């Protein structure tokens, strides 16, 4: 005889205490690095490098002023916004069209193409960076933002195509047939009927593609030669040279980097759970 799972009101006191203690511990572990970096960004350099641990020590916004006024951080920030924004737009366009084609149409090589998308996710950046650099050099794209956008799309599009293909599978095909009876072609059906219903999946795609480009370092260092074209991931490394690291500027820059990513998450979070679960169950 199978036992029915207990509801919230039937949970024992000990189980409730253990559950809440686990959740509080997980929350503290997750938030501790972020809070510590934020508190450090408010301290002077001498307090950050001191062996004495304090939460507050002469707190001020001077580190943020120096990062924004005395360094190239605004230029790096603008470059990252452009690269991450273009990666998000191109990544969503390619993933949505490819995912819809894999979900709705049968064509020769479909299964092999899906396996190819999956296999590309198995190679680390250290292996991919050399052939991609050679291709970019032959195309004359080194030290351009376009080279970074193409590299980041090569990472994000295969994963997002698999995820969106699973989400499109959850949308009834009867809607496509009804749209065809109304005279809509495949692209019009995709644009006017299917795409509006796939907003949760598109929100996840937008969030993932933006983060793929926003915090990336390896491609940004390899493909960018000019200081004026550095993105944030590569530019912030100038604050931690081999000697005399500037932790005060680095912590302030790290906090400022979180702002755009937090805004993207804020606008996408309503659809994140639905998009991830639908894509996961049908993928």
Description:
- It is a single chain.
- This protein has helices spanning 13-41, 45-48, 62-70, 73-104, 110-120, 125-139, 145-169, 173-181, 186-197, 199-214, 218-223, 232-235, 247-282.
- α1 (13-41) crosses α13 and α10 packs antiparallel against α13.
- The protein starts with 12 loop residues before the first helix and ends with a helix.
- Helix content is 73%, strand content 0%.
- By secondary structure, it is mainly α.
- It is built from 13 helices and no strands.
- The radius of gyration is 24 Å and the shape is globular.
Distance between the termini: 34 Å
**Structural class determined from secondary elements:** mainly alpha
* Count of helical stretches: 13
Strand content bin: under 5%
- Overall, the morphology is globular
The helix/strand series, from N terminus to C terminus, equals: HHHHHHHHHHHHH
Determine the mean pLDDT: 85
Residue runs with pLDDT of under 50 for 5 or more positions: none
Rg, Cα atoms, Å: 24 Å
**Number of DSSP-assigned strands:** 0
The level of helicity is: over 70%
What characterizes the major β-sheet? Answer: none
Give the tags.
0% strand; 13 helices; mainly alpha; 283 residues; 73% helix
What would you say about this model in short?
With 283 residues, the protein is mainly alpha-helical.
Helix and strand arrangement:
Blueprint: H1 13-41, H2 45-48, H3 62-70, H4 73-104, H5 110-120, H6 125-139, H7 145-169, H8 173-181, H9 186-197, H10 199-214, H11 218-223, H12 232-235, H13 247-282
Helix pairs in contact: 1-13, 3-13, 4-7, 4-10, 5-7, 7-10, 7-13, 8-9, 10-13
């Amino acid at each position: 005889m199978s036992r029915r799972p207990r509801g919230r009101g039937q949970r024992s006191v000990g189980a409730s205490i253990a559950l809440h203690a686990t959740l509080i511990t997980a929350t503290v572990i997750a938030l501790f690095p972020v809070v510590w970096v934020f508190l450090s960004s408010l301290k002077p350099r001498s307090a950050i490098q001191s062996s004495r641990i304090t939460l507050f020590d002469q707190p001020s916004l001077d580190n943020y002023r120096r990062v924004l006024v005395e360094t190239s951080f605004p230029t790096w920030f603008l470059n990252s916004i452009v690269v991450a924004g273009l990666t998000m737009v191109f990544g969503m366009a390619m993933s949505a069209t490819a995912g819809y084609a894999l979900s709705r149409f049968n064509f020769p090589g479909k299964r092999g193409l899906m396996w190819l998308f999956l296999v590309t996710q198995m190679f680390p950046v250290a292996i991919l960076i050399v052939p991609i650099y050679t291709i970019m050099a032959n195309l004359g794209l080194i030290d351009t933002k376009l080279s970074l956008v193409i590299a980041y799309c090569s990472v994000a599009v295969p994963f997002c195509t698999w995820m969106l293909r699973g989400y499109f599978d959850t949308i009834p095909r009867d809607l496509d047939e009804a749209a065809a009876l109304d005279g809509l072609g495949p692209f019009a059906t995709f644009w006017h009927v299917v795409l509006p219903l796939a907003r949760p999946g598109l929100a996840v795609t937008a969030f993932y593609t933006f983060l793929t480009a926003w915090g990336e370092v390896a491609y940004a260092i390899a493909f960018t030669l000019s200081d004026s074209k550095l993105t944030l991931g590569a530019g912030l490394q100038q604050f931690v040279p081999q000697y005399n690291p500037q932790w005060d500027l680095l912590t302030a820059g790290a906090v400022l980097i979180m702002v755009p990513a937090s805004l993207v998450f804020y606008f996408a979070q309503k659809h994140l759970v639905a998009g991830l679960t639908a894509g996961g169950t049908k993928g």
